[in-house]
């Protein structure tokens, strides 16, 4: 079987989405279910929902898309606090016992947790805890947080969570609930997104505003880096405090959320994802000279806003030169050797009526391993395109991400082993252009470009995770989320 994952191999992957809700009047399980639908792009391998009614905490989770996991409904998930999670993971780690939310029973009662990100000191912590007799049931770093909270001797859940949060490092947007409260916190750099929304009779905290929109919650604000909020009432403002003992001197929001990961209709840390992508396209157009193009097309869907920006800036039409088949399943039968099917064709088809005899600019958001770009160029040439100029709205991806994004080893990143000229030759494009780092920074309208993480492009890891990792003392954990 060819997996969709293998076909999607040429992209970085977000690894999780989280959704928490507190309301006595709304159906929290149903809202969590809808919230996870909105966050499905952040993880397609597993999904889960935990709900408590103040005494009993029930959980339902499994492998697959939200629709598959909850195909027989959400019966049995009744209560006023809910927590949901969708997950993408690296191969081999997609195992049922790693599916979140994770739930335990401890001296304070029920506890459930959902995490988006990656703990860079997970191996160190795990080793320490294991030596003191702690046993683990999963291979996800998330379980460490649960264990740290359960072992804390502090009096209240927020105090316990704060103590645990100060022992973990890396990227994390985490939601924890017991039978009374919902606690959410974001790492001190703010790598991964998290926002707060208001229902008429409750509160929602989640990874992206698109989930707020779907459940009818009004965006209130983003959770600040290093902030923890505690929700324990339908109406009272959540309590908020800065939990981190040490705050870095700058933020490091993930720029790739704006390039590719997040849904275009989300607004993250006040910056519109869609408009940032349009700006990237405009900037790319300003930086690419000497292309005599008849039209601009995108690799749908993620390249579309940047392609529209490119067309607007250059004054050339944006047309849908590639059509995406939205209905292919997660896996399909491997074509035989004789058929020699280009698997990309299952997903994309070039529109001959638009591209034949034309000089085409094809905009995509990124090239990671270089496995599909060449095949798409070939599709366009086979459909009669006179020339295909590939324009990428992010700089070359040369370094792995240690902050909750699925990147393979550095050697598998095409830009770390080949020059731009070699990549152009490899994908057989008539020309290849990447947006500059400075251009990418300029594409942000609201956020301070100095407060972002660009490590996968420039190798400058905001918290020095690479140095620690090179020493071999950390980041030895099998699975991240
Ligand atoms: S390394 Fe890249 S993908 Fe990872 S957090 Fe930084 S910008 Fe995002």
CATH topological fold name of the largest domain: Glutamine Phosphoribosylpyrophosphate, subunit 1, domain 1
Small-molecule binders:
iron/sulfur cluster
State the total count of DSSP E strands: 27
Distance between the termini: 26 Å
Q: Can you give a write-up of this model?
A:
- The protein is α+β, with helices and mostly antiparallel strands and 481 residues long.
- The chain has 2 domains: 251 residues, Glutamine Phosphoribosylpyrophosphate, subunit 1, domain 1, CATH 3.60.20; 170 residues, Rossmann fold, CATH 3.40.50.2020.
- Strands 5-4-6-3-12-11-13 form a 7-stranded antiparallel sheet. A 6-stranded antiparallel sheet has the order 7-8-9-10-14-15, covered by helices on one side. It has a 4-stranded parallel sheet with strand order 19-23-24-26, with helices on both faces.
- Strand 14 and strand 15 form a beta hairpin.
- The protein starts with a strand and ends in an 11-residue tail after the last helix.
Task: Provide the descriptors you would attach to this structure in a database record.
disordered N terminus; Rossmann fold; six-stranded antiparallel sheet; 2 domains; disordered C terminus; binds iron/sulfur cluster
Give the secondary structure arrangement, pairings included.
Elements: E1 2-3, H1 4-7, E2 13-14, E3 16-22, H2 28-38, E4 46-52, E5 57-63, H3 66-69, E6 81-87, E7 102-106, E8 109-119, H4 122-131, H5 142-151, H6 157-165, E9 170-177, E10 182-186, E11 195-199, E12 202-206, H7 209-215, E13 218-222, E14 227-231, E15 239-242, E16 253-254, H8 256-261, E17 267-268, E18 271-272, H9 273-287, E19 295-298, H10 304-314, E20 322-324, E21 331-332, H11 344-347, E22 348-350, H12 352-355, E23 359-364, H13 373-382, E24 387-392, E25 405-406, H14 414-417, H15 420-427, E26 431-434, H16 437-442, E27 452-453, H17 455-458, H18 465-470
Helix pairs in contact: 2-7, 5-6, 9-10
Bound molecules: iron/sulfur cluster.
The site of iron/sulfur cluster has 12 residues, from helix 17.
């Amino acid at each position: 079987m060819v997996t969709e994952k293998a076909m999607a191999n040429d992209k970085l992957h977000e690894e999780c989405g989280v959704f928490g809700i507190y309301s006595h009047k709304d159906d929290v399980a149903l809202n969590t279910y809808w919230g996870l639908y909105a966050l499905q792009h952040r993880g397609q391998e597993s999904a889960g929902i935990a709900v408590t009614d103040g005494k009993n905490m029930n959980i339902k989770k499994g492998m697959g898309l939200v629709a598959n996991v909850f195909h027989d409904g959400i019966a049995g998930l009744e209560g006023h606090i809910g927590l949901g999670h969708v997950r993408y993971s690296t191969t081999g780690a997609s195992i049922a016992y790693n599916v979140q939310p994770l739930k335990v029973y401890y001296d304070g009662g029920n506890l459930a947790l959902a995490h988006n990100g990656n703990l860079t000191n997970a191996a160190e912590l795990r080793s320490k805890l294991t030596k003191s007799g702690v046993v683990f049931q999963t291979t996800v770093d998330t379980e460490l947080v649960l264990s740290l909270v359960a072992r804390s001797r502090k009096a209240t859940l927020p105090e316990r969570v704060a103590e645990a949060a100060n022992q973990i490092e890396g990227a994390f947007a985490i939601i924890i609930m017991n039978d009374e409260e919902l606690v959410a916190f974001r790492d001190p750099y703010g790598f991964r997104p998290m926002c707060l929304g208001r229902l008429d009779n409750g509160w929602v905290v989640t990874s992206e505003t698109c989930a707020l929109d779907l459940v009818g919650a009004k965006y209130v604000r983003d959770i600040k880096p290093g902030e923890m909020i505690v929700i324990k009432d339908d109406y009272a403002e959540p309590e908020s405090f800065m939990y981190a003992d040490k705050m870095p001197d700058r933020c490091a929001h993930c720029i790739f959320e704006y390039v590719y990961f997040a849904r275009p209709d989300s607004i993250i840390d006040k910056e519109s994802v869609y408009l940032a992508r349009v700006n990237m396209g405009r900037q790319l157009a300003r930086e690419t000279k000497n292309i005599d193009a008849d039209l601009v097309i995108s690799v749908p869907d993620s390249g579309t806003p940047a392609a529209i920006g490119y067309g607007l800036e250059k004054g050339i039409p944006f047309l849908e030169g590639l059509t995406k088949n939205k209905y292919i399943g997660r896996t399909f039968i491997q074509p035989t050797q004789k058929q020699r099917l280009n698997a990309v064709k299952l997903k994309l088809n070039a529109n001959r009526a638009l591209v034949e005899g034309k000089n085409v600019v094809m905009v995509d958001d990124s090239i990671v391993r270089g496995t599909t770009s060449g095949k798409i160029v070939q599709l366009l040439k086979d459909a009669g395109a006179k020339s295909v100029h590939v324009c990428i709205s992010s700089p070359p991806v040369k370094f792995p991400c240690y902050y909750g994004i699925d990147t393979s080893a550095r050697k598998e990143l095409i830009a770390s082993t080949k020059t731009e000229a070699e990549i152009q030759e490899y994908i057989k494009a008539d020309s290849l252009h990447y947006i500059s780092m400075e251009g990418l920074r300029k594409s942000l309208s609201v956020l301070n470009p100095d407060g972002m993480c660009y490590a996968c492009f420039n190798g400058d890891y905001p918290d020095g995770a690479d140095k620690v990792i090179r020493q071999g003392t950390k980041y030895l954990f099998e699975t991240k989320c």
